Amino acid sequence: MGEKLKTKDKILTVATEIFYNKGFNGARMQEIANLANVNKAALHYYFSSKQELFEVVLLNSFKNLFISFDKVVNSNMPIIEKIDVIIEKYLDFIKTNTQNIKFILNEIENNLAFIQKNMETNSMKVKFFDEIFEELHLEMEKGTIKKINPNHLLINIISMCIFPFIAKPLIMEITQFSQEEIQHFFDEQENFIKKFVHNALQQKRE
Amino acid sequence: MGEKLKTKDKILTVATEIFYNKGFNGARMQEIANLANVNKAALHYYFSSKQELFEVVLLNSFKNLFISFDKVVNSNMPIIEKIDVIIEKYLDFIKTNTQNIKFILNEIENNLAFIQKNMETNSMKVKFFDEIFEELHLEMEKGTIKKINPNHLLINIISMCIFPFIAKPLIMEITQFSQEEIQHFFDEQENFIKKFVHNALQQKRE
DNA sequence: TAATATTTTAACCATTTGGTTAAATCGATT
DNA sequence: AATCGATTTAACCAAATGGTTAAAATATTA
């Protein structure tokens, strides 16, 4: 017991790693089998085809994304602090899941139908966005923060949190940053984004 | 004359399209040959291998990126307006070159050595960053704009301009935006980013 | 322990894929 | 028109790849 799933789990773990790094087309069943210490036939015993194995990995990857973003905030702290928490959560997630996001961004277009089907059946809806939207609208009505489009606010926050990680190799190539410089950049990024957003949200003092 | 390069150009155009959409691993020489209306052997007549053809496409792709970003601004308009122009240029570029950027982001890691070698020999250095950095520092000294880290400012501007295009399919899946809603988002995005940045840069009135 | 179901293996197979070769065709120059 | 180099083609090839099969090994259960 418990041991039964060992091989299957091992295969899935290895497959995830390989698919994340090489994508569907770059992944080789043989390499997955080798790294999982099983025969290629064992792969097909647990997963009928490369496509099926891939889809399991893709779906897990998506679930992972949604779990992390769901219900980020539900306390009754001030809106500005809440946004700070959102920024922290996004940065936390991307730091340890860069490959996960890259993988999804790369593979989503070729698998839209599959994803849509399984998003529905697994009822992975994002209430998070709706909730924070509503709250932002409320606070704007109250005059706590400036009136800006919440869609833009949230998507641009996500952009600033995620893109530098996705584009790290390109950024390093273009800027010729040293390892220390890029490290310093990422260390400072959280505070920069927070201030950036505060400036956009805070009412000017009258 | 001029006709001589026709076939080679046709191959390159088609190869670019295929490599952009499917990456190195997903691209098939046969498909490139078919779309270019030539035999597969003709491909190898002009490009010795898939790798070589790929590298030509990759290098062109990189040059394209650098040409677009080089010398964005050199007039003597106020710094804030200059930043606006930069935002416009980035958005213009990404609108028509989404696949180009995605391709580079995906393939850069596996081809770092090649890119570095050819960046040097082709002396594709980006003076743009240095110049605008210097100017930002100057204006901060003068007190025209707030003192913030130019690295962060520029990279975050780029993030906001580029990421939504890269992540459009994912955003649509998560937000369940309709076609009109997403269109509206992209239409408004330019002004949003500009205001966002202005707020971050403008000195509070005393 | 014998019987049964689960898991793993080695040896194959068909197809795809990048690449080659030698001959044929086309184009310009003389 | 004859010549010579550039271009294109058809027919192949070896290696890689996803997948299959039947038998062996390992657990599980009666």
Offer a few descriptive terms.
206 residues, Arc Repressor Mutant, subunit A, homodimer, DNA-binding, Tetracycline Repressor, domain 2, mainly alpha, 2 domains
Describe this structure in words.
Two copies of one chain form a homodimer. The first copy, chain A, is mostly helical. The first copy, chain A, has two domains: 1-48, Arc Repressor Mutant, subunit A, CATH 1.10.10; 58-201, Tetracycline Repressor, domain 2 (Orthogonal Bundle). Chain A contains ten helices and no strands. In chain A, helix 1 runs antiparallel to helix 2, helix 1 packs across helix 5 and helix 5 (79-107) crosses helix 10 (179-201). Chain A is globular, with a radius of gyration of 21 Å. Chain B binds a DNA duplex (30 and 30 nucleotides) through residues 4, 7, 28-30, 38-46, 48-50.
Structural class by SSE content of chain A: mainly alpha
| Structure annotation, total helices of chain A | 10
Largest interface: A-B, 47 and 47 residues
The description of the largest β-sheet of chain A is:
none
The CATH topology assignment of the largest domain in chain A is Tetracycline Repressor, domain 2
CATH C-level of the largest domain in chain A: Mainly Alpha
Mean pLDDT of chain A: 88
Instruction: Characterize the quaternary organization of these chains.
Output: homodimer
